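Ticket #4471: complex job returned nothing on first submit. Input attached below:
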Amino acid sequence: DIQMTQSPSSLSASPGDSVTITCRASQSITTSLNWYQQKPGKAPKLLIYAASSLQSGVPSRFSGSGSGTVFILTITSLQLEDFATYYCQQSYSTLYTFGQGTKLEVK
Amino acid sequence: QLQLQESGPGLVNPSETLSLTCTVSGGSISSSNYYWSWIRQPPEKGLEWVGSIYYSGTTHYNPSLKSRVTMSVDTSKNQFSLKLNSVTAADTAVYFCARITSGWYYFDFWGQGSLVTVSS
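Support reply: We reran it on our side without changes. The output follows.
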């Protein structure tokens, strides 16, 4: 299995701040990395696919970068609706695996 | 707009079989561009991919569950289903159905989720 490790596990920030979340893969996954946002009681929502492609309808304050084993999700000018849990997911292997999640909380 | 909706019992006895169905509306399950998946999330925990199925019936399962999982598809009803046998409390989770878009293989449409509790 390809293990996905996110850091930090939790993060406190204020509206208007910028934050970064890192996802590391246990082996190279080229750019086969997707990011999701999940709010309590809701299904995850696709934000970024193929490491850096913004899903249709997702605000441009979300961006992704990276390749190989290290990937970054950046959120600029945080809005209140951005406080949620974020997951990375690799699609390099058909045994799809997710990171453990990063909870973004209001400071 | 594509919509997915899970249905099935919310309570299953230990050692019995968990059965869920996902009904797809607003699009065809028979499109060659997509796979259909189950993903689960235990309470207060992360996401675990359970398995995926193509409209032709080809399946991929998580090896950690493979011996207990069966997925099937009914194109005439635009539905796909999950059966997980010999369940234990560890199988208690919200079960989501989702669509995978081939190419980059991301989960782009999700159902709202169905909580299944394993308990006697």
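Chain B is about 0% helix and 50% strand. Closing as resolved unless it happens again.
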